[in-house]
Design brief:
The protein is an alpha+beta fold. Helices cover about 20% and strands about 50% of the residues. It has a 7-stranded antiparallel beta sheet. A 3-stranded antiparallel beta sheet has the order 4-9-8, with no helix packed on it. The N and C termini lie close together (about 5 Å). This is Glycosyl hydrolase family 95 N-terminal domain-containing protein.
Length: about 150
């Protein structure tokens, strides 16, 4: 099996773009990679919109957000989205992360609730930190190995 991920590509203004995505069970993160065949071709901005009860905080290139849903009677969740770039510039402006002229963007998303117990913020940070030590290729390799093992392919 050499798949277990979503991959799309398109061409615009002579630049070939590629988007790859998978949700890694072993590493407990969702992983997105945006790349292009020409340097300095990727620019984007990102932000999170939730209810007024959501606490949203930027720490470097990572946005953290948490909420006690259901007006404080439901589950508590914490999520973190990390943006790693190759090349280009990155800054936070008006609550948005702005990436200009990057060669590649790697996004990792970790999210945890207390539905099954535990401390969502702590667990979320542990999953994200562990994934930050691994590059896209290693995360993908671990993901595919788990899929192959689970499906006996």
């Amino acid at each position: 099996m050499n798949c277990a991920k979503v991959s799309t590509s398109f061409e615009k203004n002579g630049v070939k773009y590629k988007q790859e995505y998978f949700s890694s069970f072993p590493d407990k993160v969702m992983v997105f990679r945006y790349s292009a065949d020409k340097d300095h071709s990727i620019s984007l901005s990102a932000h999170v919109e939730r209810t007024e009860n959501t606490k949203i905080e930027w720490v470097n290139n990572t946005i953290h957000f948490s909420e006690h849903v259901g007006q404080g009677v439901g589950v508590i969740f914490h999520a973190a989205i990390d943006f790693e770039t190759k090349g280009g510039s990155t800054h936070v402006q008006d609550g948005k992360l702005v990436i200009n002229n990057a060669d590649e963007v790697l996004i990792r998303i970790a999210a945890v609730s207390n539905y099954r117990g535990g401390a969502p913020k702590t667990l979320c940070q542990q999953h994200l930190d562990a994934s930050l030590t691994l590059g896209f290729d290693e995360l993908e390799k671990r993901h595919i190995a788990t899929i192959v093992r689970c499906l006996n392919v």
